[in-house]
Write a structure and sequence with these properties.
single chain, alpha/beta, D-Maltodextrin-Binding Protein, domain 2, 3 domains, 5-stranded mixed sheet, 16 strands, globular
Amino acid sequence: MHHKWKITILLLTIVSLMSGCLGKKEVLEPLQPSKIKVVYRDEDAFYRDYGKYFHMKYPQIEVEVIPEMQVLKKLGKIINADDYFVEKKKLLENSGADVFLLDDYVFKIFAQDGKLYDLEDAIRQDDFDVDGFMPGLLDKIKSLGNGKLYGLAPSFNREVLYYNKALFKEHQIESPRNNMTWQELFDLAARFSNVGAGGNKVYGLYEYFGDPGRLMYQIADTSGLRLFDPKGEKVLLNSEGWKDAMKLAVGAVRNKSVFFHPESQTYTQKSYFFEGKAAMMVANAFVMMELKQRPTYVEGEKPIDWGAVTVPIDPAEPSQSISLFEIAAIAADSPNKRAAWEFVKFVNGEEMAQSRSRTINGSLPSRTGYAKEIDGKSMEAFYLLKVKQGNTLWMNEHVPDIFFRLFDKPLQEEMQAVIDNKKSVDEALAELEIKGQEVLLKAREAAEKKP
């Protein structure tokens, strides 16, 4: 019996070792001198962002850059999202590229069409560290690829609530904090409603690209509401969740908690937050560059002592969407997968995360622990909330982009009718759902007529 147990243990050990070896199977051959094609905005941007660093570490890999800018040149001055996507998709499909750097919308379509290489075996083979990415990021990328990991994102962008520290201190109002609700934000902003007058008026919450309809969208997105059904066939507005979102947005406008940038002024002509005339503003990481640079080229603007906290959250689900503009992925039919994988690893590695953390360039490294502070400002608000899974309120590949342009007018009309007490929230949303359905049909017809 004792002898049998010895044999059993020996067999189990052998099986275990074999399993370990199989788990580390060589899915990619050792690196050889090679050439890869990479699709990127343009060649100069590529070498500035990645190329020069990559060449120093991998001189044996030659990189040919396929510029996306040729799509914009082909389309000319008049550009809409639908036409741009069609032309960009053609470029990507016909490029013969080994590596793509894709936004989340195009990435999802390419992943689901089988055009991308699953990275999981290569990650295991090379013991590449993926535990250092921000919580929820890999799950988000997997959700775009039906559960498979077809890419890695070296950077991300998301919105935070910027605030002017001096204004809060001057008027003895407590500063905003992380994890507020929308109602708490509006209540805080309302405390500035009587501060100043005329040219010295100070606004609580400033929406620089906003309007009442967009504000309602923001609130609804926080609550996980959807504007369409999954197939993009129905507009979903007449619900309790949307009623709550509209009530909050309308209340904020009526109470003067929020100030929208005037249509008569361009953003470059005048920006109330940068002039110190607004206490708070919801915006993404690109604004950090403006906060640093505008005082050097806009006459009369002075540096602002600013801070940032998370955008408002839903207490039941304290997470937040992110924008991914550069998901590094390998073409499924690439003959140079090893060299392509070395590039994907490099741009997603710790060296590049460290490099990105030193400068403000409109995005942040998706690896945590590197960008704790930039120029003395805490970056905690960008990393604090877990990445929200699933699509955003607007993201539906079955809905033509023209829908939003056509729907904007009825949306603003109904919002204003409620603000002016000419309609109830229930009446406005019922009407919007009907009009939205009509607009969706028109948008589909217009999209189908295009060559």
